[in-house]
Amino acid sequence: MEAFFSSTLGVAIAEIGDKTQLLALFLAARFAQKNAIVAGMFAATLLNHAVSAVFGVWLAQTVSPDMMKWIVGLSFIAVGLWLLLPDKADGPDSRWLKYGAFGATAVLFFLAEIGDKTQIATVLLAAKYQEMFWVVAGSILGLMLANAPVVYLGEALIKKIPAKAVRLAACALFCILGAATLAGNGISLQHSGLT
């Protein structure tokens, strides 16, 4: 369950002020079908984070435990420092809007998550815990906790959340995870549910 809670908390905090949260706000303003937007976010995140977790578990099973400890530990710290940089709001590609609330959201969220902090965090969490199901479930829940309220409550909610304080808290969380990983005896090679 540690994998689930760490993934939920880490992704939820990292997602505050992220470009996908701004995308959720844009889509909520564009489409009246809020439930379809949330369903599209869920579908895109499930696919993106499942692939990320598979890669993370594969990486952990392929690389030696000592090397994996360094890769994951230093990467957590790098993601933590990366979280200090605010995202630039690139406008969503309007050609996808013709596919409706669900289709546009699914495509745009999937594309926005490629190479995003939360996708990389999911890879690292899966590599650390090697519990693919719990990492994916936690990362999806974290992303949904951060983005679904934006769809329903909109801009008023974003204005009340201090993005700088959240980025600092997320940075601290990922740096602590990195330091704890580096201080440990390596990454345990437990079964991930893939076997």
TrEMBL record:
Localization, UniProt: Membrane
Keywords: Membrane, Transmembrane, Transmembrane helix
Predominant localisation class: membrane
Residue ranges of the TM segments: 36-61, 67-84, 132-153, 165-187
Signal peptide, first to last residue: none
Listed name of the protein: GDT1 family protein
InterPro entries in the record: GDT1-like
Single GO MF annotation: metal ion transmembrane transporter activity
Organism: Neisseria dentiae
Topological type in the membrane: Multi-pass membrane protein
Assigned protein family: Belongs to the GDT1 family.
A Pfam family reported for this protein in Swiss-Prot or TrEMBL: GDT1
A cellular-component GO term for this protein: membrane
